[in-house]
Amino acid sequence: MKNEEFEKLKSSLAIKAIVKIIIYSVIASIIVSILIDGIYNDELAESIANFNYNLYHWCVANKILLIGLTYLFIFVIISYIVIRNSNNNMVEIISAMDEILKNPEKQVKLSDNLVILENRLNNIRVDLISNQNKAKEALQKKNDLIMYMAHDLKTPLTSIIGYLTLLTDEKEIPKDLQEKYINIALKKALRVEELTNQFFDITRYNLQSMPITKQNIDLVFLLEQLIEESYPMLQEKNLKCLLNTPKTIPFLGDGDKLARAFGNLLKNAISYSYESTNIQIEVKEDENKIKIIFKNKGDKIPEYKLEKIFDKFYRADESRTTSTGGSGLGLAITKQIIELHGGTIYAKNDNEFIEFYIELPDKI
After folding, report:
1. What is the DSSP letter of 302?
2. pLDDT of residue 262
3. Which CATH number belongs to the domain containing residue 179 in this structure?
4. Mean pLDDT estimate for the chain
5. How far apart are CA 185 and CA 316, in angstroms?
6. 286: which strand partners?
């Protein structure tokens, strides 16, 4: 609750309590005065005189004092009752908070004088339900991810063990076949290493924010290096990566982190590209911004998936094979890296093309 609303509620409750005490005290005093000093005055005086004549004379002599003490007594009793009822409001609030924790689906209902607090508690209740649902969804995604990763780790390990066992048991295997088995085992081992690194990514991504160390780098040279390193993956699908960019674009940023971000986008493009097509990377400076566009030809991504594509643990294609499937963290980490550099990233479809747009500030 905002401080203004809280102060308003406190003042309202205090004013209502004071008004109740004053009104009830005045009414009670008038009633007592009518009863004692009017209707039952003679009877009361006669009863006191009969009981003790000296007491009667003392009461007559100190009538004003007795009336004052009577009114004071009335005021104290009424104040106690009103304050006690105010404490009931506190009990009501505490009970409502306990009920929110036990049964958040049930709407909170408080007394009319607590309507502001009632609205606020219901907002908290809705937020609690939303957070619980998000926590359940995140837990489910992580459990699914662990299941996927365990399966993905088991598959290449089985292949490695199988091929190494063949090489160990069969002594007369031709050299060309030995090289083939060794290459397959190496490829599978590299896949295990990649999946293991993804597990570490998950831990780092959830436990701490990603630090960056800025230095002067050349974005064009960085992209050229990434394309060269990706040559074997491009060859597997007969792809070409075309870089359309000026000769140099200096930038103040974390080269390692940006290489990781761009590398994730390039791997994503390779994985989702049709065979024998071109991947295009365009870099240009425009209005104090550096724009980088990754573009590949592939199956169209539905609009609802485009909205989630940068979420943690989300895979746009849930049926990805072991050789291409990732942890669902690549694009989420890419987005974090770009935003740490003061930039933005988004994805869209253009007919048969999948496009990722990055905008970085020219000076940061």
Report:
1. P
2. 93
3. 1.10.287.130
4. 80
5. 29
6. 289
* Sequence-separated contacts (24+) of 190-198 with Cβ below 8 Å: 191/156, 191/322, 191/323, 192/153, 192/156, 192/157, 192/160, 195/149, 195/152, 195/153, 195/156, 195/327, 196/153, 198/149, 198/326, 198/327, 198/329
Residue type, 292: I
Q: Rounded to an integer, what distance in angstroms lies between the CA atom of residue 297 and that of residue 237? A: 13
- 223 and 355, same domain (yes or no): yes
What DSSP letter does each residue of 331-344 carry, written as one string? HHHHHHHHHHTT-E
> Is position 124 within any domain?
no
> Which pLDDT belongs to residue 224?
93
Same domain, yes or no: 352 and 226: yes
- Among candidate residues 327, 313, 318, 317, the one with its CA nearest the CA of residue 150: 327
Whether the model clears a pTM of 0.90, i.e. scores above it, the answer is: no
Residue type, 305: K
Domain check: are 195 and 292 in the same one? no
At 325, give phi and psi (nearest 5°).
-65, 140
Is position 109 within any domain?
no
Looking at the structure, tell me whether residues 35 and 79 fall in a common domain: yes
- Domain membership flag for residue 26: yes
Q: In the numeric block, which tokens belong to residue 227?
A: 């394309």
Q: State whether 90 and 222 are in the same domain.
A: no
Token pair in block for residue 92: 């009501």
Q: Which amino acid is at 181?
A: Y
Identity of the residue numbered 311:
D
> ∠ CA(61), CA(63), CA(68), 5° rounding?
140
